[in-house]
Description:
Glutaredoxin, alpha+beta, 17% strand, globular
Amino acid sequence: MSKINSLADLRKMKEELHHKIALREYCDEPEKVVQIAIGMATCGIAAGAKQTVEFFIEEFEKRNNPAVITQMGCLGDCTKDPVVQMTLPGKEPVVFEKIDSREKVVEIIEKHIK
């Protein structure tokens, strides 16, 4: 995190964080955008799910793609963590397993969302 030296720095940081929070949790019409839910129970976190969330946020921001990125609990098979459930508008959810790198996140976005 960068050092805050002025009120302008604080405002800039607030805007950046607000955008990240909005990308993760809020949307007026979530059924019209890509929805990403990442398993964040203890098992998912231990397998790297926090980093997976960050990778999705960063990659959607780079592409200026609207999306809702949220957390979900344990899906029951810890050997497959981190687990990502993606729902495209008007489609059934698709589950991806062992999404533990930026490369895998980019592959999902390029092959299934773009």
